[in-house]
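Troubleshooting log. The previous run stalled partway through. Resubmitting the same three chains, unchanged.
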Amino acid sequence: MSASDVAGPIPPPAGLPTPATSLTAESATRRERAAALIQRTGAFVVLIVVTLLGAIAFGPKFANVNNFLNIIEASSFLALVAIGMTFVIIGGGIDLSGGSILALAAVLTAFAAQSGESLAALLLPLLVGGAIGLANGLLISRGRMAPFIVTLAALLFARGLAFAVADNGNTVYIIARDLWFVQLGQGSLLGIRWPIWIAGAAFLIGWIVLERTRYGLAVSAIGGSEEASRLMGLPISRVKIAIYTVSALLATLAGILVAARSSSGLSTIGVGLELQAIAAVVIGGTLLTGGSGSMMGTLAGVLLLGVIDNLINQVGTLSEYVQFVVSGAFLLIVVVVQTLLTREQRR
Amino acid sequence: MQLTPSTASVPGPAVSAPVLEVEGVSKRFGGVLALDDVSMDLHAGQVHALVGENGAGKSTLIKVMTGVYQPDTGEVRFQGVPTRFARPRDAQLAGISTIYQEINLVPQLSVARNLFLGREPTNRLGLVDFDRMRAGAIRMMERYGVSVDVRRPLQEMSLGAQQTVAIARAVAEQHRVLIMDEPTSSLEPSEVERLFAAIGMLRSEGVSLIYVSHRLDEIFRICDSVTVLRDGRRVHHGPVRELTRLSLIGLMLGREIAESSRITGFGDEGDVAGGEVLLEARGLARRHVLEDVDVTVHRGEVMGLAGLLGSGRSSTAKAIYGAQPIDAGSVTIGGQTVAPGSVRAAIRAGIALIPEDRKAEGIVPGLSVRDNITLGILPSLSRFGILAGKAQDAVADDLIDRLHIKASSRDQKVSELSGGNQQKVLLARMLAMAPRLLILDDPTRGIDVGAKAEIQALVSELAARGLSVVLISSDLEEVVEGSHALVVLRDGAVVGSLQAGEVSAERVVELIAAAAIAAAIDEVPEALGTDDPTNGGEPA
Amino acid sequence: MTELVAAQARRSRIEWREWLRENGVYVGIVVLVIVNVLLSPSFLSERSLRLQVVQVVPVAIVSLGMAVVIGTRGIDISVGSVMAIAAATMAAFLGYGPIPAIIAAIVACIVIGLINGGLVAFVGIQPIVATLGMLVAGRGIALVIANGKLTEIFDPMLTNLGTAAFMGIPVVVLITIALAVAVSIIVGRTTFGRHVLATGGNPVASALSGVPAKRTLVAVYVLSATLAAIAGILATARVKAADPSYLGSLIELSAITAVVVGGTPLSGGRVRVAGTIAGALLLQLITATLIRNNLSDSTSRMVAALIILGAVYLQRDKGNT
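Second attempt completed without errors. Output:
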């Protein structure tokens, strides 16, 4: 700051180096920033508040390490689907096929496990799930069809295939316990079950890919403005195909873990899981209009749904179905608040 | 094909071969010839203005150059090579950037990410190196004298800063041609200066610019040469310094100043101004759009809103109709205040508006001619919510007949009609509402000559029967000949009004030019002020 | 010359697609009926036909509402949960008699429709999200009302409603036909119907012409919820039990499929009522055909998936030309 220029009692605006600073022109007001902040961190704050309230209300019955680990483990399957969904939604799309693909993967895992080969039990579902995801991506990007409809068809198709493999649900394949991959569902490392490790690793990788790689940046750019991204030379089709393929593969992985954990493949599981995943992503602060969102928000959203579920069970007197009401109402409240906040930011 | 060196008349700063040439390009849409044998060329380091009124063909020409449209005849040569860009992206990759009014970047992403999207620097692990990206982004922005927090989302930046990002990105990608479409339309004056400095820098680096604007003072300040389009034809091509403000306005509006003193077709016998006041709009204001606009319309009067494109004429119309939010101001009809910002309130008060963009804001393409005509009055044609088909048919048939709408039947889909007939359907829709005031925003744009004449005659007839009309047109002749009185707008403010008997094209052109010159003079001290480092503040 | 031929070929291809888009659903029905008759003439027996039409009732009624919502460029995926709420509410109020119970069920669902519509029209939430929240919450509300239990229904009037026939035609089918005619009239002959089509066809133009867009949207979601409620009541009456856990589950998918297959474009501005009913019938026939030929329910789902894709693919071309 050149003090010699500042004569007189007027506070010194001249400390700023060039006239260009008058153009710095960040039109964001404090209110807008606050709105953006709530959107980014709101889910974590609510998660902490709800957990604390639960701890106060139920004491150690709720607030103990084992219960927390149970919550996390129970959430890990949803978490995998939600990670894929985060990419899908940030990329401006939607994927309704997650729950069905999970069921299909579980059935295929158990089916292939009849061969006695762990590798087959892993590869068959990944192959089929990946193919469905690839088809989704191709139809959406190259076929320019609405993601909502394409993945709706995939939902029906995958569920139908799962039923077909399971002989219309009449056959439940039981997985032999001596296959090593069963450990993925039932074993633990350092006292923590494998699904938790796997979901945790998936979050970490998902976060790095979304935040720190060119691919992740391209996903949010395409969700923000597909037209602008195309003009800036991004390979839109390739990115979209990858988004839907990865989403399907993560749902497949969740299905494999469910099968390994329950030693069986049921074709009826996972109904509506994709909707829970969407709810978790949205509660985590990712905008359904695409373009922005966060992996850590999704983590908070998934855990929040798990904690609410657990708390409702703690109450005991409450009907367990209140859980649906609470998550549905939660989703709507979050979306309404988000919409109002976004309006605030755009004003 | 023989190449005629039409470039000889344009001594750009560079003597090299033109970077971009357009040769005899025509483009037809249905019955409308949007471009008729248009040629222009652009040299390295040249700033070339492209001007013309609404529908003159500016945007079609730009779209032909950037691969959005393919020319019917003629060719585009880029760096001497005949080129046909199949898609906008091909033009972009070849090195032609378009910087639109709505800037083609991703608003949610940070400035740095927008600058580097698709070519982010990475470290050895393949992860994006944000430190290097940020440093690079700060350097790029500072070159243009803008210092912002490059980590913040683009949408939080002022439009000027956003534009700088778009320009910086184009330059970083080694683009040789930048097309700027109305770049200053929503900038603060200081940001305009910043943009002009950036343009100067680009020019010195040999980048060529096509500058689309209707702000004449800007064209005279920064452009080397100019192409004027009117009705799809090139009416002028040459250095800017050969023109005066008055002659340029004359070229755009299609009036040689000498012959333009034609008086309104109404003559001055009917002294409607003495009659009862119907509409009083007072102090209409909206930041960056309208500035304290007053409009008064008497019963049976046609009030023209004159001004160049972007002068606020459409915004004024929409503000009166409640379709443009306003920060201040009031609208009264026959002494009754109309609730601001509500189209339905305006309609109830007896105001009807035919919007400028027929496709996007006017017709409902999937519905029949009849349903489109009666869309605004359905409740009055029904009993307990059930439509009275016969009453609906009667209204539709009457208007189809009176307005000579050419449709195979009233059940034909409106999207199958020609532009002129679609416009008549909209006119019919508004007339069916039995309005007291009819606002027509460029009612004859893009329709053929016959339909144009019919619509003009119809408006006169309606006014003669006592309907009050607010008329806007991109064709000055049409407003002048069709209006009793005129309000002249520039930059969202009224710069003059002409009463019955004073209305002439010459007067309108004079008023606009005078205001433009006054604005140009105003800018000189302001420009000096920002260059002076000791002057921290800005003149109020 | 060759260009001319090519242009003609292209035009006839476009016209052919246009025709298929409009009438494909009817062709499909005819083909399936012929196939079934050839495979087993007993298909045309009264019992078999009655089974087909009775089974299609809930999907058909829900699809009617869905078609109108889609006509405004919206979507309502909460319909299955709304059916469950209707069933649970009706069971809960059955103590006051069947008529009050039915009224209570419909009123409860109208409230749900108002919330859906309010969220879409006034808050500006995307229809799929607003109704997704209601899908999740609605199922829970139904379960809470019914305390999670399946309630058997012994009311003679309701049982009658589910099983009675008039001149050989089941009452539920007659009600479906009446509702289809009513929706057809609403869409085709009322102010509201025109406002729906205009709002879906060009929202900006409609607003500038004074169409009450927000009110129309709210009404559309209320209509959809009301029809879902009726579907829920009829389905409950037919099986003589209110099943809040499974009633209407995934019906939104069948309904959307029926609407799309029936030729109503997802881009709004158009509602094809007859096509929608035909679409629902086609889905039912596909399932029936596959099951009769010892192909499973699962295969029929996969076939339905491919049919949705085909129908939407045909519609897609319309958007591009």
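Takeaways: Residues 66 and 72 of chain B are 15 Å apart (CA to CA). The two ends of chain B are 58 Å apart (CA to CA).
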